[in-house]
Backbone:
C-alpha cells in the first residue's frame, strides 16, 4: 500500500492546512436540540477525533463544518472566514465509499480533481494518487470488482485529489474488517505525516481515535439537559504512529470508555 512518490509532492506544496473554529455552535431540528454551546479550535495540521454515543450529533457537527448543513446558533470559520456552504478548501470522506458503479477506480478519483486543471496535470495527479493508495494495477476496475478496503482507499484518494486544507472524515473505516481498518489507519497517518492537513474525524472506535488523533473530544448531554456539548477534551500523548499496546494509551482508553458510559470491567 506504500508508494515511492512522496505524499507531499502528490498533495501539493502548501501550508499545513487551515484553522477550523467553532464558537457557540448549536443545531436544532424543530424542537429537538442536537448540539449546543460547541466551542472548539482545530489548529492547522491537527487531527481532532470526535467520540460520542449514537445520536450525540457527531455527524451533524461534521456536516456543519463542511457546509452541508447550517448551524442554528453560533459560527464556524475557516481561517477567520465564515463557512456558509461548500468550500473548495474542504474535502469530506464518508463511511460508505460512495463510488459511481459505472466509473473505473481512476475515473472515480478524477471526480475530486478541480475543474479547469490542464489535462496533463490532471492525468498526472490521478496517477500519483493511484500510486499513493497502492491501486495502480486496479485503475480500470469498476467498484464491484474491488474489495471494500480498495473502495475506501479510492474514496480517500478522491477526497485528497483537490489538495484540501481541511479533511472531514465521517466514520471512514467503520465498514471495514479489523485488519483492513488498521491498514487504512496506517495509510492515513502516512499521508498526513508528509502533507499535514487539518482533519476532523468522527469515529465510534476509541482505539482508532487514540491511534490517529492529536486531541479527542467527547460529545454528550448533561444530566437533565438536551443537546450535546463537549463533555471532555483529551490530549493524546506521543508522536504518531503510536504503539497500540502502550500502557499510557490503555489508561486513556479506559477513561474514554467511562466517559462514553461503557464499563471497562463488563467483559
Residues:
Amino acid at each position: 500500500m506504500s508508494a515511492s512518490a512522496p505524499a507531499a509532492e502528490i498533495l501539493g506544496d502548501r501550508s499545513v492546512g487551515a484553522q477550523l473554529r467553532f464558537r457557540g455552535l448549536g443545531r436544532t431540528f424543530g424542537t429537538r436540540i442536537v448540539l449546543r454551546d460547541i466551542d472548539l479550535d482545530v489548529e492547522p495540521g491537527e487531527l481532532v477525533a470526535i467520540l460520542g454515543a449514537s445520536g450525540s450529533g457527531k455527524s451533524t457537527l461534521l456536516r456543519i463544518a463542511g457546509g452541508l448543513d447550517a448551524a442554528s446558533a453560533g459560527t464556524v470559520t475557516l481561517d477567520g472566514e465564515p463557512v456558509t456552504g461548500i468550500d473548495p478548501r474542504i474535502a469530506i470522506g464518508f463511511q460508505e465509499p460512495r463510488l459511481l458503479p459505472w466509473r473505473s477506480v481512476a475515473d472515480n478519483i478524477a471526480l475530486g480533481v478541480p475543474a479547469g486543471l490542464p489535462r496533463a496535470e490532471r492525468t498526472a495527479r490521478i496517477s500519483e494518487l493511484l500510486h499513493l493508495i497502492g491501486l495502480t494495477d486496479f485503475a480500470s476496475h469498476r467498484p464491484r470488482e474491488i474489495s471494500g478496503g480498495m473502495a475506501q482507499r479510492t474514496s480517500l484518494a478522491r477526497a485528497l485529489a483537490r489538495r484540501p486544507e481541511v479533511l472531514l472524515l465521517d466514520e471512514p473505516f467503520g465498514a471495514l474488517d479489523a485488519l483492513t481498518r488498521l491498514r487504512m489507519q496506517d495509510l492515513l497517518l502516512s499521508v498526513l505525516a508528509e502533507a499535514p492537513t487539518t482533519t476532523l474525524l468522527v469515529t465510534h472506535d476509541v482505539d482508532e481515535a487514540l491511534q490517529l488523533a492529536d486531541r479527542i473530544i467527547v460529545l454528550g448531554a448533561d444530566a437533565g439537559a438536551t443537546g450535546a456539548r463537549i463533555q471532555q477534551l483529551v490530549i493524546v500523548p506521543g508522536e504518531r504512529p503510536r504503539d497500540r499496546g502502550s500502557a499510557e494509551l490503555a489508561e486513556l482508553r479506559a477513561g474514554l470508555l467511562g466517559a462514553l458510559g461503557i464499563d471497562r470491567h463488563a467483559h
